Amino acid sequence: KKQNFVCRQKEDVMERHNRNDIKPERTERVMKNKIPCDMIKDLFPSYLDGLTSEVSNQEIDAHLEECEDCRQVLEDMKEPKNLLNSILSEEDKKEIDFLRKVRRKRFKWIVLGSALILVFIVLGILLRKSLYGYVIDDSLSGDMIMCEVEMKGRDIIISGAILDENYGDASAVGMGENLFASEGKIHSYSVEDGSMKVPFHTVAHKKLGGDLLYQGFLQNHEWEGEPIHEVWMRDKIIWADGENILPRAAAVFRERHDYVGDHVADGRLTQALGLDVVLSKKYADWNTSLQTKEEPYGWTIRIKTGQRQIEDEDVDELKSYGYVLLAAVGILSEMNFAFYEGTSDFEKAEPKTVVHVTKEEAAEYASDKMDMEVEDIHDIGKDAKKLQKLLEVTGILDTAYPNRRLGAGDTIHIRLYDSTEEKAIKTARLKIQGYDYSSEQILTAEGTPLSDTLLSGFYDFEISKEDLKDIDLNKPVHLTFSFYDTEGNLQQSIKRGKNAEGVMDILAEYGDTYGFLLKGNRKDGFEILQ
Questions:
Q1: pTM of the model
Q2: Residues 167, 170, 176, 182, CA torsion sign
Q3: Phi-psi label, residue 381: left if phi above 0, alpha if psi -120 to 50, beta otherwise
Q4: What is the reported pLDDT for 149?
Q5: Which residues contact 195 (CB under 8 A, 6 or more apart)?
Q6: CA dihedral sign of residues 168, 172, 178, 182
Q7: 149-172-218 Cα angle (round to 5)
Q8: Pairing of strands 440-446, 425-433
Q9: What is d(CA 40, CA 480) in angstroms, rounded to the nearest whole number?
Q10: How confident is the model at residue 367 (pLDDT cuts 50, 70, 90)?
């Protein structure tokens, strides 16, 4: 409205000038008299925003040339800080400075308080772990639970150990066969089509003062129904048609799938198999490429060799993994391992060597090595017992690979649970040797009684970087266990199997844990499962 008023004033003056109602020399004086400073100041916001007309701008500029007060007001409006200072009194400025200081102090206290709360939370978690352990249920990783199943008439006996010091049951003394109890209650199991599903619920609790967590467990199910041909513990099969399924084989069986185009499932399978560790340790780099558009469906693992020369044993080893992958992926027809010389670009260079394996070759290999007729290698992957046999004949079960991926720490833990019938082992010694047997390290662990009802030993060997400073961990490390009775007499040295043939190997990674189960007796021989 004020702008329109000014414009109308100007138009009136100019019109009167044109009619000679006023003299030209009086025009400028008349304009100044008609537009006071307050009105010019009211136009400043629109003037600064470029909203005033060209005629108004000329009048404002003319006014500013002669009026110093209006020029100063306009300059202050261009600088909000200066305008604020010009408006505020000295008391207002002091109050604002005080509030700013209070806000800064309050912010510092908020940050400090948040940091203290975070510290208390972390300390609480660590204190609970050290004093009370954990309360666990089906979320416990099954790969560190060693089990064996026995069928005795109508009784199905499940026993074994949790090879992790953080898990167990401090209240297990006197519980006998009910070590699967949670809060004093036995959880039910289910049977469907001859497959028994056993839940795994156990309390992990350390009282103040460090009561022992009992890793051993024993459970007895009385069953009068249809014959049982499989026993499962949560999502892991532990027994199939009269044979215990080892954790490595159970993990591979759990990760089998029917579609090779599922990248996530493929990754879990290579990890369960231990192939990812083998490739990462031996070669510079690797990745995968899938062919799923048309048959034959293929999976190619592309490998950068770095400085390594490819040898016949490398080719044979990868073929073995190829046979298992073909069995474990339902529609997979061929596996390829493509070697790229040095660190060549996967996308630009041509592979120097390609190891090619088909499902027909895998079926022929399985028929020969497993002494059975195999028409389709995918049928092996659908049967846990047969898949475990394939893992045995390929030699993959001879080496324990890390698959828990803790990823932190400077030590390696080797845990052994004594499940022998005599339960007379007091001391265990572990000899660790490098791949070429040029160096060795001997560690000793005393047997720890697990409970009054299960007089078994639990041994934990902690290996530091200093212990293995002369051993190349990029290749498998050989293990040999020796057992002594309560009087210090040597019972037996066991490498692997009842006949002590070969050696047990681990492909070691710091921060990981490797579990072994000792079973058998003096008469029939001892056996170690991993």
A1: 0.68
A2: negative
A3: alpha
A4: 87
A5: 228, 229, 230, 231, 232
A6: negative
A7: 10
A8: antiparallel
A9: 99
A10: very high
Question: Pick from 379, 387, 403, 394: which is nearest to 240 by CA?
Answer: 387
- Residue 357 tokens read as 């394996």
The three-state secondary structure class of 518 is strand
290, 260 in Cβ contact below 8 A?
Answer: yes
Contact present, 260 and 266 (Cβ < 8 Å): yes
* Helix 384-393 vs helix 359-370: crossing angle, to nearest 10: 90
168 within 8 A of 133, measured Cβ to Cβ: yes
State the CB neighbour count (10 A cutoff) for residue 22.
14
Residue whose token pair is 């109508």: 154
Q: Give the span between the Cα atoms of 466 and 94, in whole angstroms.
A: 65
Cα(139)–Cα(20) distance, integer angstroms: 100
267-282 pLDDT per residue, tens: 999 988 989 989 988 8
Name residue 6's amino acid.
V
Structure tokens of 207?
């009282």
Residue 424's identity, in one-letter code, is: A
Other C-beta atoms within 10 Å of 93: how many?
12
Mean pLDDT score of the chain: 76
Beta partners for 157?
150, 220
pLDDT of residue 301: 95
CA-CA-CA-CA torsion sign (328, 329, 330, 331): negative
pLDDT tens digits, one per residue of 284-335 = 899 999 998 888 999 999 999 988 888 899 999 999 999 999 999 999 999 9
Q: pLDDT tens, 72-111?
A: 888 877 765 554 555 556 666 666 666 666 666 777 778 7
Please, are residues 526 and 492 in contact by the beta-carbon 8 Å criterion? yes
**Amino acid at residue number 527:** E
Q: Is it the case that residue 169 has pLDDT exceeding 70?
A: no
Residue type, 14: M
Instruction: Give the per-residue SS3 of 217-254.
Output: EEEEEECCCCCCCEEEECCEEEEECCEECCHHHHHHHH
Chain centroid offset of residue 128 CA: 23
pLDDT confidence of residue 30: 42
Tell me the C-alpha distance between 7 and 3, whole Å.
6
- Cβ neighbours around 269 below 10 Å, total: 22
Instruction: Fill in the amino acid letter for 173.
Output: V
Whole-angstrom distance, CA of residue 312 vs CA of residue 345: 24
Q: What is the DSSP letter of 394?
A: T
For the chain, the straight-line distance linking the first and the last C-alpha, in angstroms and rounded, comes to 92
